[in-house]
Amino acid sequence: MFYEIRTYRLKNGTIPQYLKVVEEEGIEIQKSHLGTLVGYFFSEIGTINEIVHIWAFASLDDREARRQRLMADPRWQAFLPKIRDLIEVAENKIMKPASFSPGASSTDDIRNTRRTNQNRDKGT
After folding, report:
1. 91 and which of 7, 19, 42, 61 could share a cystine (Cβ 3.0–4.6 Å)?
2. What's the N-to-C CA distance of the chain in angstroms?
3. pLDDT digits (tens, 9 = 90+) for 9-55
């Protein structure tokens, strides 16, 4: 199991605008290709104007294939300009969980996370 942690520092005061357009358009496109969204966060205390989203992948090859499909999607290409100018700095990390961490067993945890996310999206 690998986790991609994407951190964006946005222009001052643009978090509401960014979250609105991601919620209304972007997140469904991402989820249709990237699969398991672990979480999507914005800063409340600490570094201001920061967005962090975390995605789970079975392997680095899985991540690469999913990111390629996302980047090839015309809907994603049309969406990117809506957020691109709001982002000042972008950082990307790939993390592996320690053996004792939640999420360490790839197959069971990724299935459970996907099932939980699907149920949440359906309102169950």
Report:
1. 7
2. 26
3. 999 999 999 999 999 999 999 999 998 999 999 999 988 999 999 99
